[in-house]
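Below is a filled-in request sheet from our internal design queue. Each sheet records the structural input a requester submitted and the sequence that came back. We keep these sheets so that new team members can see what a complete request looks like end to end.

REQUESTER: design group, bay 2
PRIORITY: normal
MODE: inverse folding
CHAIN LENGTH: 170
BACKBONE (tokenized):
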């Protein structure tokens, strides 16, 4: 595997772990707001990000790449209102999308075909995640300061399961 691609894949692994860390911190903050459904949704997001990191780790191992794990930055522990938290999550997903796209471009430039194939999965996954988080942001904006509507959203998000990317609740 070409060095530039190996380095970028290792960097992406640490970004996926940071995403997990960030969402776990957001989950804890939602618990403090007594919004257990949002906290549950974020905790599953944390678990999903771990699977993304491991997918890339396995890919490196299986393709003669060298894994070099890196430091994971400390995420914030204080956030704002529910809409501000979900907007921060959306901004973060957009950064991850840009990172995946840049990694894909590197793999294409280096003619690393297997890497391009696995990254196509990540490109689709990012589109799905941006849509899901964007929908939650839009709904929170509709709800505004309406407590009962926020609690209804909270109970809907409590029903999220991890089973599949095809499940619209995920
Ligand atoms: Fe939030 O998605 Fe990983 O890549």
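RETURNED SEQUENCE:
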């Amino acid at each position: 595997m070409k060095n530039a691609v190996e380095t970028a894949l290792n960097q992406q692994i640490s970004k996926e772990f940071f995403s997990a860390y960030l969402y776990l911190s957001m989950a804890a903050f939602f618990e403090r707001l007594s919004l257990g459904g949002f906290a549950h949704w974020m905790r599953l997001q944390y678990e999903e990000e771990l699977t993304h990191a491991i997918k890339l780790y396995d890919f490196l191992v299986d393709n003669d790449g060298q894994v070099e794990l890196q430091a994971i930055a400390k995420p914030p522990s204080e956030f704002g209102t529910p809409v501000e938290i979900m907007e921060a999550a959306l901004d973060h997903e957009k950064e991850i999308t840009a990172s995946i796209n840049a990694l894909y471009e590197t793999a294409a430039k280096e003619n690393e075909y297997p890497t391009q194939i696995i990254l196509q999965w990540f490109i689709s996954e990012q589109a799905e995640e941006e849509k899901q988080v964007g929908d939650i942001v839009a709904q929170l904006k509709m709800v505004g300061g309406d407590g009962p509507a926020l609690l209804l959203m909270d109970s809907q998000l409590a029903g999220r399961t991890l089973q599949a990317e095809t499940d619209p609740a995920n």
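SHEET NOTES:
- Residues 16, 19, 49, 52, 93, 96, 122, 125-126, 129 surround hydroxy diiron-OXO moiety (CB under 6 Å).
- Helices lie at 3-32, 36-62, 82-109, 113-143, 147-157.
FILED BY: M.R.
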